[in-house]
Amino acid sequence: MLSELVNLLSENRNCRKCFNNPQIIKSGEMFAVSDVKGPQPRWVGENYFNSKQRICFVLINPGSGDKTPDNEWSSLPNLSLGKNMTIRTSAWQDLMKTNEKGMEKWGSWKSLYIDTFGFEDNLDEICFTNWMLCAAKYKNSKGKFENAYNTKSIDTCFSNVSNRVLSNLSPDIIIFSGGFSIDAAVKKPISLTERRNKSGNKSREISSFEIKKEVKDCLSKKTRYFYMGHYAYIKSEDYLDAKIIKDQIAV
After folding, report:
1. Cα–Cα distance between 215 and 140 in angstroms, integer?
2. Cβ(219)–Cβ(171) under 8 Å?
């Protein structure tokens, strides 16, 4: 399954359906390709596909950031341009090291997704992915580039590529992190605050009846769906989400 995932990302390195597209704009500006080009894999533990309970976090997009192929993401082109699977596998391993090292630096990422859930000792059994696989940027009113994503870009990526990534990962437990990520999965979006109020303090599970058909079609009928806050702009409520889910998925 990992080789299939590597090949899927490789085959779509040159996808530009979200870029220079007059239907996908932010503040009147079309999305531009960021310095890191092509689908960026998030962390997929080496034992994920053999784990007793596959747990997958789904976030929004990689973010345009300030990293370029000349440093931490320099192996990304080899994931696609490598002439054989040995080269691609080596590139994949480098990218996983980039992800693992990044968790320490990406704000509250590690404290929320790893420490609070208690995944320190079984990090190799979980994975992360994004609705939108490529980093994008747009020029704001001050002429500076900022991270770019919106509903249209997420829908475009999902219908073309990221749906197949999700299908390949085939999680038993899927956790949508952040209001935008949750809204992309459900038929009728509501605010995160309202969703939490409705759930109470004992559950963060979303009924499969609330999930969009196109999302469910990617996954097993036994897949369970959960929601939580996002690691950026962290609040105490986000940590509470993680603790509640931890108890619900304990095996």
Report:
1. 32
2. yes
d(CA 245, CA 224): 11
How many domains, the chain?
1
Q: What's this model's pTM, rounded to 2 decimal places?
A: 0.95
Cα of first residue to Cα of last residue in the chain, in angstroms, is: 24
Helices and strands in the chain: count of H runs, count of E runs: 10, 10
C-alpha to C-alpha distance for 166 and 223, rounded to whole angstroms: 12
Could you tell me the residue range of the domain that residue 169 belongs to? 2-249
> Identity (one letter) of the amino acid at 232?
A
Report the CATH number that the domain containing residue 90 is assigned in CATH.
3.40.470.10
Return d(Cα 135, Cα 38) in angstroms, integer. 8
Predicted pLDDT of residue 240: 98
